[in-house]
């Protein structure tokens, strides 16, 4: 399993691997919003939590279809399915690799972009914590969506339609936690709910995704 | 331990392709599958490898004992030959890739990225993967595609060495591999009859396979 994680990370960092794709998208989005909304600090500060969370969510979405599609194209997925590693483990590891190359960099870069969007200072810590807690769910739910659409030609769009509604709870609680913290309120409850969604996704979705993969490989 | 297939029916896209197929394959033996295009060779091999369920019949050997190689080699173009092979070795709990590289004459290419290999070299790397699975039964779908004559002979030697160490191989191929000891199995007699009520049945339950 470690070998699979190392391979996926190595592939992501090599040329054409897509590392930095989500991060670049996140950066551009956060730069574009003040240009569109206008430079008023109060307005920007108000919408900053929502913009940052929506941006992180879309940045995650961007690289989701690579999770299984590339392995399906070159036959690796068939071979992994016949390997000693259970397919549930393959799904979990590939979601983890996606999170390390997408979610984690987003969480670390978010405070820098929060300055651009004039987020109130008390929100910075909670922004990082909420993204670290919430983005694993984005990767895991995304892996499930990618598994559902793996055999389809141009399944990326369908996958977005399937995955985005499932992202809603994570978005609501993530943005809510940052909003509350920025206003100086207690953000523990939305953070706990966020962690709960992530824990639930990580516990259940590998099985659902592996089931979907088995059907799509037939 | 041997592979024993009894009265197997396998389907492709819901349609039964092969019906009533039975054969046995013991250690040290090779079996070559023959049959025209569309006769179900790939479907049979995928069924044996556990990638799709059989409609009926029994397979005595669990997929965990088979090393499956298909048309696609499962190579990553930005990894080197050695990295590709070492990955599959690690997945199967092995470390040593040197002998496999040597057997398929890849040692000079070991540090090249797979994207810079020719089709035949990629195929050789795909076949070298079999040797790092540590599994006794090789299930191979057209293993010699894009190999030149010398590489086919090289591969035949690898298969023979595998058989000599107690392995077995089930190969679907159209060409002569140079394995005179291999038995032949022609799939054409096992072709499934296409149900007459195709497209109408299914709802009454007796043709439910079409909707799987």
Automatic annotation (TrEMBL), chain A:
Membrane topology: Multi-pass membrane protein
UniProt keyword annotations, A-Z: Cell inner membrane, Cell membrane, Cytochrome c-type biogenesis, Membrane, Transmembrane, Transmembrane helix, Transport
Pfam family, one: CcmB
GO biological process terms on file: cytochrome c biosynthetic process; cytochrome complex assembly
Domain of life: Bacteria
Any single GO CC term annotated in Swiss-Prot or TrEMBL for this entry: plasma membrane
Keyword Transport: yes
Main location: membrane
Keyword Cell inner membrane: yes
Location in or out of the cell: Cell inner membrane
GO molecular function, one term: heme transmembrane transporter activity
Function: Required for the export of heme to the periplasm for the biogenesis of c-type cytochromes.
Family: Belongs to the CcmB/CycW/HelB family.
Protein name: Heme exporter protein B
Organism of derivation: Pararhodobacter marinus
Automatic annotation (TrEMBL), chain B:
Domain ABC transporter, chain residue ranges per copy: 3-212
InterPro entries cross-referenced by the UniProt entry: AAA+_ATPase, ABC_transporter-like_ATP-bd, ABC_transporter-like_CS, ABC_transptr_haem_export_CcmA, P-loop_NTPase
Gene Ontology molecular function: ATP binding; ATP hydrolysis activity; transmembrane transporter activity
Any single biological process term in GO: cytochrome complex assembly
Entry keyword Membrane: yes
Gene3D superfamilies tied to this protein: P-loop containing nucleotide triphosphate hydrolases (3.40.50.300)
Pfam families: ABC_tran (PF00005)
Source organism, top-level taxon: Bacteria
Keywords: ATP-binding, Cytochrome c-type biogenesis, Membrane, Nucleotide-binding, Translocase, Transport
Entry-linked PANTHER family: ABC TRANSPORTER I FAMILY MEMBER 1 (PTHR43499)
Official protein name in the record: Heme ABC exporter ATP-binding protein CcmA
Source species: Pararhodobacter marinus
Gene that this sequence comes from: ccmA
């Amino acid at each position: 399993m470690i070998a699979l994680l190392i391979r996926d990370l190595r592939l992501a960092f090599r040329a054409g691997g897509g590392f930095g794709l989500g991060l670049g998208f996140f950066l551009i989005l956060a730069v574009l919003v003040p240009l569109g909304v206008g430079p008023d600090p109060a307005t920007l500060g108000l919408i900053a939590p929502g913009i940052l969370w929506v941006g992180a969510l879309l940045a995650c979405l961007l690289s989701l279809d690579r999770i299984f599609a590339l392995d399906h194209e070159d036959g690796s997925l068939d071979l992994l399915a016949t390997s000693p590693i259970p397919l549930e483990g393959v799904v979990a590891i590939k979601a983890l690799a996606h999170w390390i190359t997408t979610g984690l960099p987003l969480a670390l870069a978010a405070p820098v972009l929060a300055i651009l969007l004039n987020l109130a200072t008390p929100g910075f810590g909670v922004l990082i914590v909420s993204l670290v807690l919430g983005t694993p769910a984005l990767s895991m739910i995304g892996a499930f969506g990618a598994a559902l659409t793996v055999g389809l030609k141009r399944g990326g769009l369908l996958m977005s339609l399937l995955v985005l509604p499932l992202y809603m709870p994570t978005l609501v609680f993530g943005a809510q936690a940052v909003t509350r913290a920025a206003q100086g309120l207690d953000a523990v409850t939305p953070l706990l709910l966020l962690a709960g969604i992530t824990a639930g996704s990580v516990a259940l979705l590998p099985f659902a995704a592996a089931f979907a993969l088995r059907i799509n490989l037939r | 331990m041997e592979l024993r297939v009894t009265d197997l029916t396998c389907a492709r896209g819901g349609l039964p392709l092969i019906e009533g197929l039975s054969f046995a394959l013991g250690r040290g033996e090779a079996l070559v599958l023959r049959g025209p295009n569309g006769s179900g060779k790939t479907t049979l091999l995928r069924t044996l490898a556990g990638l799709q369920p059989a409609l009926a019949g029994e397979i005595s050997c669990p997929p965990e004992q088979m090393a499956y190689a298909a048309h696609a080699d499962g190579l990553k173009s930005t990894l080197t030959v050695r990295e590709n092979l070492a990955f599959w070795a690690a997945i199967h709990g092995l470390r040593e890739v040197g002998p496999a590289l040597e057997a398929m004459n890849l040692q000079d290419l070991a540090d090249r990225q797979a994207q810079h290999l020719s089709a035949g070299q990629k195929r050789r790397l795909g076949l070298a993967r079999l040797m790092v699975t540590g599994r006794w039964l090789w299930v191979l779908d057209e293993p010699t595609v894009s190999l030149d004559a010398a590489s086919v002979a090289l591969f035949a030697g690898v298969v023979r060495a595998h058989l000599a160490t107690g392995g077995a191989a089930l190969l679907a191929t159209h060409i002569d591999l140079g394995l005179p000891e291999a038995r032949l199995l022609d799939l054409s007699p096992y072709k499934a009859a296409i149900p007459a009520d195709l497209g109408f049945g299914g709802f009454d339950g007796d043709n439910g396979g079409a909707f799987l």
